[in-house]
Write a structure and sequence with these properties.
- The strands form three sheets. The chain has a seven-stranded mixed beta sheet with strand order 12-11-10-9-13-14-15, with helices on both faces. It has a four-stranded antiparallel beta sheet with strand order 2-3-1-4. The chain has a four-stranded antiparallel beta sheet with strand order 6-7-5-8, with helices on one face.
- The N and C termini lie far apart (54 Å).
- Helix content is 39%, strand content 27%.
- It has 15 helices and 15 strands.
- It has helices at residues 17-27, 57-71, 82-90, 108-120, 159-173, 205-213, 216-227, 233-243, 250-258, 265-274, 287-297, 325-339, 356-361, 372-377, 390-393, and strands spanning 3-12, 31-40, 43-52, 74-80, 96-103, 124-130, 146-153, 176-181, 191-194, 278-286, 301-310, 313-319, 346-350, 364-368, 380-382.
- By secondary structure, it is of the alpha/beta class.
- The protein folds into three domains: 3-90, 2-Layer Sandwich (Alpha-Beta Plaits); 94-181, Alpha-Beta Plaits; 191-400, Rossmann fold (3-Layer(aba) Sandwich).
- The chain is elongated, with a radius of gyration of 27 Å.
Amino acid sequence: MSDVLLITFSGEDQPGFTAALSALLADHQINILDIGQAVIHDTLSLGTLVEVPDGSHQGLREVLMDFAESVGLRVRFTEISADSYAHWTEGQGLARYIVTLLARKITAEQIARVTAVVARHGLNIDGITRLSGRLPLGELPRLSKACVEFSLRGDLADADVLRRDLLEAASDLDVDLAVQEDNRYRRHRRLVAFDMDSTLIEAEVIDELARVAGVGEQVAAITERAMRGEIDFSESFRARMALLEGLPETALAEVAASLRITEGAEHLISTLRSLGYRTAILSGGFTYFARHLQQRLGIDHVHANDLEIVDGRVTGRVTGTIVDGQRKAELLRQIAGEEGVDLQQVIAVGDGANDLPMLSIAGLGVAFRAKPLVQREAEQSISTLGLDAILYLLGIGDRYQGS
């Protein structure tokens, strides 16, 4: 009967070690049951679970001990019982989850808090991977990014409770924590739809227009109530539009030129484009500004509200159907159908209550720097980093991102 042995090597990393080890195991007709390797700051840790033919157990140990000594590494052997191995193989049928920690820097306190939550829910950590680049010592860059991904396995009693506990930890630590089921869709998203105002750009355009028109305070107050979900979006939109009556058309270009792109938006969209993703703007704002962003960022689809302009002045009305929350969801379904994409392969990103319908039907809904109501209702929330943190939720590390 074959034996099962866990062999662990550690020490200074060196080129060719894994090749030499596997060749040595091949000479002894060893079957590899599992293998994992990590290198942190030139220090190697390699573990391999092997099936050893009956009668060759001791001989293999002696050969590997000599090999480890010759290359200056430490080796440890752990015998695995038949019952333990059977329990391990049964675990492959358990559900998998991904928890993503997003912050400006990673601290031991953050790791301790996350892993405590994971343990409390009875999940095992299969792996921990740093997706972000290496940070310098001392003062951090102004827009530094740090991300660690935890791969989990186990029977989860209540995903909502796990998400609630992680959100509580995130709030205490001033970080973002996302939990996703590690299913076949996670790395196969194909369409990303963005809200525009306060998502792709760091402003509410209608508030900026109102400022130019001299009615900024009145419009901003209505906007804030709408984003918090206190009043119907379409009702609030008409009320705000009416206050813009008489605004010169030239003000649109003035405001467009002053708009600031949100942190990480350009990097995110250029990377998505390089990976073959399709993109869309679904905005309760105005087509004029959405088209401006489309040209700058390379967005594929744009749907927003068309301002009515007569004799060079804004009338205070829009033409066509108002793009409210339900309309955004309808448009998302429409675009997904046109692109031949399943809704589970769609990502939707927004900050306001009128974004919730599209966030709820997308395979991955992300509340970005959102109002409290939206953070509570959305599947995922990002407040600490820029928009390009979404790449980490897809498992795309810095080394694979576009410039």
